[in-house]
Amino acid sequence: MCYLLVALVIAPQAFAEERNGAAFSAIEREMSAEERRATGIDSLSADELDALNQWLIERFDQVQETVSAEVREEVREAVLEEVREADAAEREAEIERRVAIEVEAAKQEIVDAPSEPAVSEPFEAVVQGRFSGWSGKTVFPLDNGQVWRQRHGGRYRHTDDDHRVRIYKNLLGMWQMKVLSTGRSVPVRRID
To answer: Is residue 43 within 8 Å of 53, Cβ to Cβ?
Structure first.
């Protein structure tokens, strides 16, 4: 497509150069004898005929330059639009590729996660022992006997004496633990 557009830009210039060179040299050569008589070209002096021919050549050159400039501008705009569309398509493809990678990683994390003992409903419990927040792979023993572990990195410092938490599934079906007194939450998985 790009080669076609380049050809459309170059062709008018080449045609104009050809016309300037050999195709039009004198009006009397372009007309038949009958046309020369009908227009009165035969009655012009050699100087008048030369002046007319020079004027026609210059006029033809101006028209060719105008047409060539218009064609070049139209082709330039078409090429720019094509490039813009290609850039937009490439950006969209890259976004789709990255989203697919993220979705696949989340699916793999679900598949790779060790199976958790059956828990299906959200519940509230109290973190047993010393609870000062989380900092990576923190383990949370609960008063109901369950033990949960932080799934992702992240830090939170908890200074409140209230250790009540709520365990629930997020939109992706992964477990979260929310500290009820502060509203802070962390991704977790059950280990016992």
So the answer is: no
| CB 59 within 8 Å of CB 51 | no
Higher local confidence (pLDDT), 115 or 25: 25
Q: Could you give the CA distance from residue 34 to residue 31 in angstroms, rounded to a whole number?
A: 8
Distance separating alpha carbons of residues 70 and 13, to the nearest angstrom: 12
Residue-wise pLDDT tens digits, 131-177: 999 998 899 999 999 999 999 888 999 999 999 999 999 988 899 99
Q: Tell me 149's DSSP state.
A: E
Q: In this predicted structure, what is the pLDDT of residue 117?
A: 52
Query: In which element (H, E) is residue 6 found?
Result: helix 2-18
Check residue 6 and give its pLDDT: 42
* DSSP E strands, the chain: 123-126, 133-135, 139-141, 147-150, 155-157, 164-169, 175-179, 185-190
What is the pTM assigned to this prediction? Answer: 0.40
Radius of gyration of the chain from its Cα atoms, rounded to whole angstroms: 41
Residue 86 tokens read as 């290609």
Residues in the chain: 192
Beta bridge partners of 157: 133
